[in-house]
Amino acid sequence: MSTHRRDFLRSSLAASTLVSIGGSTIPGFLARSARAAGIPAGGDRILVVVQLLGGNDGLNTVVPHGIDGYHRNRRRLRLAEARLHRLDDEIGLHPGMGRMAELVEGGRLAIAQGVGYPNPDRSHFRSMEIWETARLDNRPDALEAGWLGRSLDQHPPRPGEDTPALHIGGGRSPLAMKARSVAVPSLERLDQFKLQLAGSEGERRSAREAMGDVARPDRGDDPLLGFLRRSTLAAYESSRRLEEVVGESAESSYPNYDLARRLEQIARIIKAGFGTRIYYTRQDGYDTHANQLDPHAALLNELSDSLAAFHDDLDKAGLADRVAVLVFSEFGRRVGENASHGTDHGAAAPVFVVGPVRQAGLVGEHPGLEEADLDEGDLRFHTDFRRVYAAMLGHWLGVPAAPIVGEGFDPLPLLPESRG
């Protein structure tokens, strides 16, 4: 290979906008993320995690309208029973969650009540660390990897395989996805996945031709050539496949919400046959200390409509039984409303799972609302969140849960067990 061609390829790769991983740009990610052309989607199960940032008011989400303590503690924020989507004689979903109520009726949504952990921390940052790492200790290594990141470390991808996990959305990459041996990409938009070669159209055409020339198996054993074979062509092939995903022009059936757009991007990647098994995205705005009613209703409407559109999209593609969606927040809100017509940081809250659930509707009893039942004015948890994670890992993904969440956390019966 000529010196000119070597220099040209070096400069072309250096000028390429590939993908952001922890603030850096590396072609190696695309080498791992491109599965060989022609391999079908396969049967692997997929987990999508939606984190509700700020601490969702579970009491006005899964509403205990038939329990006296709700009416005593919620006067301005009380939701009328007639407007709720009934789940049983005592519990109903928020009026804005009609599409999620339809998922319950269709046998596709489970609601785990009273989820939390011992000695709850009401700090956003500390509680998020606990939920995202599945660790309650303060050891120095506690924040080195998240609960999903540790699952990735158990089975790191082989060369040529798709990235096993992907964060879709702005802001920092979630601690939950942090791993020791696997770099998890974080994309705000799907088009960031594209390989964008700099220069004029002619220069870009020359770069593509050079990539194809470099990839020929008869080009020798030059070390630089070997590197370019492994990384450059894989990057180009991954870019080509993802450009097809980005370039789809079908009319969207998703509502015009930020969360819906992120879930739509995840669905497009899944339908394109990529082998990524874990996706993570977030919805912000749940820290409702003042004038809560209308903003909270808007958030729950966005959540409900977005999740339903995502499920419907996958169902039409015949993929709904392969995908489970876990929805959680770092804590609930206090039982009593505050003087600003809002709610302050609390403890236990509901967790949602969308997919081929074992039992649709409510899982577990609603925490008691009498004074003696409360934990310093907060709902007292009865289901440790690590049991939910154990179900996602052990039952759904087929990953041993005990090394990640610890011993003694039996999986909550939310999803069918993996057969291998």
UniProtKB/TrEMBL annotation:
Pfam family, one: DUF1501
InterPro entries named in the record: DUF1501, TAT_signal
Entry superkingdom: Bacteria
PANTHER family reported in the protein's UniProt record: BLL7424 PROTEIN (PTHR43737), DUF1501 DOMAIN-CONTAINING PROTEIN (PTHR43737:SF1)
Annotated protein name in UniProt: DUF1501 domain-containing protein
Source organism: Tautonia plasticadhaerens
